[in-house]
Each structure stands twice: as structure tokens, then as C-alpha cells.
Amino acid sequence: MSNLKPQHNGACHCGSVRFKVRLTDEFNTIRRCSCSYCRMRGAIAVSAPLSEMEFIQGEDNLTLYQFNTGTAKHYFCKTCGIYTHHQRRSDPSQFGVNVACIEGVSPFDFPEVVVTDGVHHPSDTLGGDRIAGILRFSPTE
Ligand SMILES: [Zn+2]
User: Fold this and answer.
1) What is the pLDDT along the chain (141 residues), one digit of tens a residue?
2) How many structural domains is the chain composed of?
């Protein structure tokens, strides 16, 4: 683990789930996504390597949601329902972390967030893992 980057504390709304995370490139990787799931969820995500996310408590209080190709893993707290993080589809070595769960920052600190075109996910448009008969919508990942 790199000790050069600051470690951020994070938690869900009710505090059942608590974690520490070092981000891939601080808040330079924040994104919104237009896919069918993210447009409902409405969260802003920031990237972190899988190995840099460490759960202090409540990892067993997370629930997993998968859809479409099932590649991405979207986690949220069983108690308060808040999305904490997801394992990306486009790069499974990375988590997307809910910026709103990170202590000391607010999603409203970033008025101009890039929107990823999740409706036309690269994994679909390149023909990689498209599943016939299922909506072309793909998640944020
Ligand atoms: Zn919670």
C-alpha cells in the first residue's frame, strides 16, 4: 500500500459500514454516469484501487446488487440503503467510491462533474460482453 496518498475515512449514513480508502488520483477521477442504474442512484463516484479500500466495520452489513452482464458489483448498506462503493466493470481492479460517503467532502463541492456515457458503455459498443436480448444499458463501471 502506498503511504504517499492521504487516507480518507468513509461511512454510510447510519454508520454501520465504515472504511478507509486511498484514492487513485484524489478527487480528479470523480464522475457521474448516465446508465440505467446510476441515473436513479444519482451518486458521484471516485476511483480507488481495490487494495486501497479497507473496511473498519460493517463489511458484512453490505448488500450486493448486480444487473445486465453482472460484471459490476454495486454495494450498499443493508440498514440505511446508502451506496458505498462498487467494483467497476470497465476496470475490475478499481472501485468506484461514493463521494458523499467520504468524510470532509461533499458532492456539492464539485459543481462540474464529468458525466460518463454509461448508456453506451465501452464494453458493449466494442462487442465484448454484450448479452443478446438484454437492454444495452450498462452501469457506471
Ligand atoms: Zn448504513
Assistant:
1) 545 799 999 999 999 999 999 999 999 999 998 888 888 999 999 999 999 999 999 999 999 999 988 889 999 999 999 999 999 988 899 999 999 999 999 999 988 888 888 777 766 654 433 333 333 344 455
2) 1
- Distance (Å, rounded) from C-alpha 61 to C-alpha 75? 10
Q: What residues sit around ligand 1, an ion, with C-beta below 5 angstroms? A: 12, 14, 16, 77, 79-80
Domain that holds residue 86: 8-125
CATH of the domain at 55: 2.170.150.70
Report CA(114)–ligand 1 centroid distance (Å).
27
